[in-house]
Amino acid sequence: MSSAIGIERICMEFGEPGQGVRALDDVSLDIRANEFFTLLGPSGCGKTTLLRLIAGFEQPSAGTIRLYGEAMQDLPPFRRPVNTVFQSYALFPHMSVAQNIAFGLEMRGLPRAEIDATVQRMLALVKLPDVGRRRADQLSGGQQQRIALARALANQPKVLLLDESLSALDQKLRKDMQMELKRLQHETGITFIFVTHDQEEALTMSDRIAVMDKGRVLQVGTPSEIYESPVNRTVAAFIGETNFLAADAADAGLRLGDGQVLQAPTPLRGAVTLAIRPERVHLDPAGELEGVVEDVVYVGTDTVYHLNVAGQGGFRVRRQNHDGAVAAHAPGERLRLRVPTAAIRVLAE
Ligand code: ATP
Question: Which BP terms from GO are recorded (predicted)?
Fold first, then answer.
């Protein structure tokens, strides 16, 4: 796949050089054509700033952004082959839906018949073929979101930037729109760059994800690479649930604080942190690890056991309620746990 967006060593500092806020710190990314690419990270990590730089609303302090091989620094936003959908939708409330979608096309001076045909095509694409005459402010939040997408797609951008676009929607609508966005990306073949702080949303929708923290990119990978093989503790903690255990790695294995030993998946030595996903641990009387039950929480599809392991509380084991049955274990009870060696990630930090 060819490169759609090349981000090369971008730094962004707001305020006085050397004293301001460093929103982005040496960020490099290669986003491929036709990719659904997500920037994921906690609030303030620099996601929106990176989108605004790609769109051309800001100029970087250092570094280069290329779109389809062309350096962008001298191009104003409206000359870039990019469109943005904001969280607030930013529709013109008193205009009709059709006028909203037509706006950018009229600015470009396209013939009326072509504009009308495009508006109808876009309404069909977002599955709202009959709302063209309605006023934008008479639509529901979910409908407004679709119209904002239709308006952004009408100009046939090569790249669509979506900034927390689903966060104003309720949970059910949000799940529907996640699928809808994936479908639109597939059907149009446009490169989507999606910004979110919601890891589940990122895992559900993306071809690849860049995990960001404090202005830096920590890891880039497919959802399964990021989930199964986080490069460090910050990524592991941010994506899904993770148990962390301190251990001492030596020839004999991974020795926990209370002397219990787990088999090491990799030959490492010294103080390490073990990252273990709750759903990879089994309750098994023949298991190598022991824990004391602190709490048992039934959450519908699963039951989550909170245990104290090696003197450390809050170790979670998540088991699916296949048969609707919940194993009866009471607080204070000792349980044995089986942790497959492949389920242990050994983190050096
Ligand atoms: P959120 O998820 O909360 O929107 P974000 O990851 O998108 O966060 P940014 O909005 O990119 O983060 O902000 C990154 C950092 O840069 C923050 O510390 C923010 O306060 C700072 N920042 C952003 N814009 C400006 C600005 N115009 N002037 C000064 N500081 C700014």
Answer: putrescine transport
